[in-house]
Fold this sequence. Notes:
Helix content is 23%, strand content 31%. By secondary structure, it is of the alpha+beta class.
Amino acid sequence: MRSHGMSRRTARKHQRTPPGQHEGPTASSTAFQPWDGHLRDGHPVHIRPACESDVALEKAFVARLTPEAFAQCSLGVIQPNDERLIDELADDAMTEVRLLALVDVDGRTTAVGLARYRVDEQRANCDCAVAVDPAWRKLGIGSILMHHLIGMARIQGLRHMYAIDAARDGGAHALAGRLGFRSCPDPADPASVTFELELPA
C-alpha cells in the first residue's frame, strides 16, 4: 500500500503535459534534454534536471526517506531527514548535476526519485548517489535515473564514478551491480563499501 497519499490507483493515468516543467535552467540542465517515459507499471514519469525552484519538491522527497525503508531505496550519500542535504539542494555550486524523477499524483507534481553527482577538483571523477521514494520501489526509477546520470557524466568527459555506502544487502546495491559498478570493501572500515564505475573515453 502506498503511503503519503501516493496510490497509483488514484494517480492520473494520462498527462497532458509533463509534470514539473520549470523555467530557469541551471548548470545541470545544459547537457540534458528532459525525458518522458513509463515505469514498469505503466505510470508516466518525467526525468529532468533540478531547478532552483525545486527546493520544496526535494525537501518533501527527502522527508519521505524514512530510516526503516532507506536501506532498500538508496545508494550513496543521500540520508533521510538530513538538514545538511536540504541546505545543499538549494546550492547548485555544491551539487554539479542533480536529476529528478517526477510523476503526476492527483494533479500534483511529486518527486519520487533523486540522483546526483559531484565532480572533484580534477574534473575527472565524481561521487554519485540515488534515492527512490519507498512507496515507489521496484518500478525502475533508480535504474532510469542512474542510466541518465551515467550518460551525463560521459558527456562531461568524466572518467570515473563512485558511491560510498553502508555495507548492507540492499536493492540499490544490486542496482549498482547491474549498472556495471564494482564493489570495493574498505579494509579499514568494514561498515562501508565503495562502488566504482570506469567511464572509458
